């Protein structure tokens, strides 16, 4: 990881824990729910949640494409954080029903149906418990659009959404998450054998460098290519992904007419007096 992305991980950890707790209280909720996949992002978020609130509920939602190792890692992570209340729901029957009713056979669309089925289950439990749904997306995935709109992107807060994947790995190391979870290839497991880096065509480490230099330092692709050692066409492809997926990062646009418009003006949770 490049030097510029190194942070004081103790400070980052405490800050995120405080912000999560503050947000839950500001929202008037009693706790938080998270979907645990056995991957590094959801494992890290669960670790932070356990410090932020006493009330955490965890859902495991495997499908036929979920690797056995991911289920094992999820259960290990539950043990690491003291076995908070949790349930495991296999989503295959729900997904099969939607697929049969729509006649869809496209692998990507079915994968997105899986992600949106999980979102629906998380919100059902959240409403039942008066909890918030806590998302697990990181900055790399959010910028690249590597998530399902209204699927894993349909959440109330994204605590690690300002950390690149390589920073997520650093913070996970600092918090002593299981080594196997930190080191295994990232995958949404929406179909068998899927890995994020293979699908994106670049390692997260290099993608993070490109994203940082292009969108935080506003450098041109040619300069970023020379600095990172990544060919210029790949840099341009990453930039294109960020631009073409902007709609996935935005809430539905409300066209401003009044002085105070939801979205344009009401942007932060308010502490009502």
TrEMBL record:
Record's keyword annotation contains Phosphoprotein: no
One of the Pfam families matching this protein, by short name: NAD_synthase
A molecular function (GO) term: NAD+ synthase (glutamine-hydrolyzing) activity
Binding residue positions for ATP: 35-42, 136, 165, 187
GO CC annotation terms, alphabetical: cytoplasm
Enzyme Commission code: 6.3.1.5
Binding site for Mg(2+): 41, 141
Catalytically driven reaction(s): deamido-NAD(+) + NH4(+) + ATP = AMP + diphosphate + NAD(+) + H(+)
Coiled coil regions, renumbered to chain: none
UniProt keywords, alphabetically: ATP-binding, Ligase, Magnesium, Metal-binding, NAD, Nucleotide-binding
Keyword NAD: yes
InterPro entries: NAD/GMP_synthase, NAD_synthase, NH(3)-dep_NAD(+)_synth, Rossmann-like_a/b/a_fold
One BP term from GO: NAD+ biosynthetic process
Pathway given in the UniProt record: Cofactor biosynthesis; NAD(+) biosynthesis; NAD(+) from deamido-NAD(+) (ammonia route): step 1/1
Annotated binding of deamido-NAD(+), by residue: 116, 149, 156, 247-248
Limits of the NAD/GMP synthase domain: 14-252
Main function: Catalyzes the ATP-dependent amidation of deamido-NAD to form NAD. Uses ammonia as a nitrogen source.
Quaternary data: Homodimer.
Family named by the database record: Belongs to the NAD synthetase family.
UniProt xrefs under NCBIfam families: nadE, PRK13980.1
Protein name: NH(3)-dependent NAD(+) synthetase
